[in-house]
């Protein structure tokens, strides 16, 4: 009768271990995405700072594919502001997802510990 219990524990342990590995990979992916979005955000801020330091009569162009389109300063500032807002929202979403995943990893670790303790108690 001890053998079926051991098999059940082994199966549950391997499932929890797989879930933990998968969740850790997702956390790493979220970290990478946050880092990339942070770089985009810095780039937009620096571009906005540089544009604001230019004289008013400076012609500004936006790159579209392999060509450039003449844009007004106001349009370029609006595009940069929208980009920053979008990136901020995405970063917040990813951080919430990351917190959820980290909590999930912690729960999986706790479940593994409980399983091992119950196994030793038997």
From TrEMBL:
Keywords, sorted A to Z: Chaperone, Coiled coil
Coiled-coil segments: 77-111
Pfam families noted in UniProt: Prefoldin_2
InterPro entries registered for this protein in UniProt: PFD_beta-like (IPR002777), Prefoldin (IPR009053)
GO molecular function per UniProt: protein folding chaperone; unfolded protein binding
Entry GO terms, CC: cytoplasm; prefoldin complex
Record family assignment: Belongs to the prefoldin subunit beta family.
Name recorded for this polypeptide: Prefoldin subunit 1
Organism: Oryzias melastigma (Marine medaka)
């Amino acid at each position: 009768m001890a053998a079926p219990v051991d098999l059940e524990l082994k199966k549950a342990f391997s499932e929890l271990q797989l879930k933990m590995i998968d969740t850790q990979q997702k956390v790493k992916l979220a970290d990478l995405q946050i880092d990339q979005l942070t770089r985009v955000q810095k780039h937009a801020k620096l571009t906005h700072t540089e544009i604001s330091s230019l004289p008013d009569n400076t012609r500004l162009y936006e790159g579209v594919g392999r060509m450039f389109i003449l844009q007004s300063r106001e349009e370029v500032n609006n595009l940069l502001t929208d980009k920053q807002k979008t990136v901020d929202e995405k970063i917040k979403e990813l951080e919430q997802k990351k917190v959820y995943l980290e909590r999930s990893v912690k729960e999986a670790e706790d479940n593994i510990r409980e399983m091992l303790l119950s196994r030793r108690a038997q």
